[in-house]
Amino acid sequence: MEITNVTEYEAIAKEKLPKMVYDYYASGAEDQWTLKENRNAFSRILFRPRILVDVSKIDMATTVLGFKISMPIMIAPTAMQKMAHPEGEYATARAASAAGTIMILSSWATSSVEEVASTGPGIRFFQLYVYKDRNVVAQLVRRAERAGFNAIALTVDTPRLGRRESDIKNRFVLPPFLTLRNFDGLNLGTMDKTNDSGLASYVAGQIDRSLSWKDVKWLQTITKLPILVKGVLTAEDTRLAIQAGAAGIIVSNHGARQLDYVPATIMALEEVVKAAQGRVPVFLDGGIRRGTDVFKALALGASGIFIGRPVVFSLAAEGEAGVRKVLQMLRDEFELTMALSGCRSLKEITRDHIVTEWDRPYLSPRL
């Protein structure tokens, strides 16, 4: 069957992967309301396209923290990619590099920062979980720097792991032939079979629940890399992140895997953008499956977006070629959306190109 959109990879992944692995990638927290809402919210934002604009040339290029990329579509950190495909993070890194875009590598990758760097040149950021043992954190950050990573994405929404019931039912554990490569030899304990999610038990034992804004400042004392704060959903925390020296913000609800009944990220985006007042770039992840979704996020003020699940599902289905195809399909759809909306460059995408539920007057017939 020919694949014509990003969503079609999920069914193929479901067929190919062991149930425990598919469920780990696919599920959200508790009732999974936010998981569904991350997608559904996009469908409530409509376009106000402008016509008769010369769209014979369209430029999607942009810069992120000073790095030039081919399009505002980047790869979010997703854990344990070798569960999806034997090449795991290697394949994802090569696909991102070929597409001229950024990959964020997860702390919980099944390939190390050095291994991912060995795939060749590319702009890569490192996603960081803060462990109770700060020496481990400092060591990890130094290794990422030495391996040529260009920024740190600090995950701030996970003092504890969200309740993911399929992982509890499946007694989720990392398959025996894989390890969290960044922590090999650090004697941090392993993810063992428990009468719960093995990952939830691991997090409870290792991740620092006391993490606070002072630690964002501390991180800046151990690295010169810019720090993106990932997991912001409110104006209040946006202002605090900027005060604490963040170089950028990722509006994220962790793929709806942490606190259920938080808003879809696309619904929280405008509040964060307004609070940032242009002082730092704001990015978004969560629920992006179409080029139209990318356009909507940019129209609401995002500087770029990150995709997570589409990467692991396409990786499971077709390896590196699958991830390349996902990036290409989103790029092509986004370019088409720009053309049909009358936008020739990213700076021409404005708030006036969309209408949301909170712009009610547009939706009632004008007299």
What's the SSE blueprint?
Layout: H1 8-16, H2 19-26, H3 33-40, E1 46-47, E2 62-64, E3 67-69, E4 73-75, H4 88-98, E5 103-105, H5 113-117, E6 124-128, H6 134-146, E7 151-155, H7 165-169, H8 198-206, H9 213-222, E8 227-232, H10 235-243, E9 248-251, H11 265-276, E10 282-285, H12 291-299, E11 304-307, H13 309-341, E12 354-355
Parallel strand pairs: 4-11, 5-6, 6-7, 7-8, 8-9, 9-10, 10-11
Antiparallel strand pairs: 1-12, 2-3
Helix pairs in contact: 1-13, 4-13, 10-11, 12-13
Description:
The longest helix is centred in the last third of the chain and has 33 residues, at 309-341. The protein is 38% helix and 12% strand. The strands form three sheets. An eight-stranded parallel beta sheet has the order 4-11-10-9-8-7-6-5. A two-stranded antiparallel sheet has the order 1-12. It has a two-stranded antiparallel ribbon with strand order 2-3. The radius of gyration is 20 Å and the shape is globular. The chain is an alpha/beta fold. The protein has helices at 8-16, 19-26, 33-40, 88-98, 113-117, 134-146, 165-169, 198-206, 213-222, 235-243, 265-276, 291-299, 309-341; strands at 46-47, 62-64, 67-69, 73-75, 103-105, 124-128, 151-155, 227-232, 248-251, 282-285, 304-307, 354-355.
| Count of helix runs | 13
Characterize the main sheet: 8 strands, parallel
Order of adjacent strands in the largest pleated sheet: 4-11-10-9-8-7-6-5
Mean pLDDT: 95
Low-confidence stretches: none
Estimate the helix proportion, in percent.
Answer: 25-40%
Broad shape: globular
Reading the helices and strands in chain order gives: HHHEEEEHEHEHEHHHEHEHEHEHE
- In whole angstroms, the N-to-C terminal distance is 49 Å
Whole-angstrom Rg: 20 Å
